[in-house]
Amino acid sequence: MNLNNRSYEFSAPIIPAASPIDGLITTASLNQPLAVEIVLWDGVRAGYSIQLKLNDFNVGEVKVVSNINEPGDTLLMHLEEQYLMKSGLYHVGFEVTNHINQVSEDSPITPLIVDRTA
Q1: 3-class state of residue 47 by DSSP
Q2: pLDDT tier for residue 114 given thresholds of 50, 70 and 90
Q3: With CB atoms counted within 10 Å of each terminal CB, which end of the chain scores lower, N or C?
Q4: Contact (CB, 8 A) for 25 and 15
C-alpha cells in the first residue's frame, strides 16, 4: 500500500489446515469456516481495512485494523465453507484498503487445493 510514497511488503496469508507442501486441505476441514491468518506488516495503521480474496474476488467479512494491532501481530479471518464447495485449485489472498485515500493493494496469494473425491 502506498502511503507517503512508501511501499509495504505483505506476506501471503497462512492457512493452518492446508498442507504447507502443496496446499491440499482435508475434506474434514471443509465442514466449517476455514481459518486464515494474516500477519500484519511494517507500516500497518489503525483504520486500514482487510478483506479476503478468493480467485481474485473479495469474499467474506471486512476487518478494520485497530489501535491495539501492531506489525507482526496475526489477524485471524475465516473463509466460509460455501466458497469451497467444488474440487479444484483456489488462490487465497487479501486486499488492504487505506481508509484515508481509498487506495487498495493486494497481497501475494496462497494456493489451496480442495479435493472432494471419495
Answers
A1: coil
A2: very high
A3: C
A4: yes
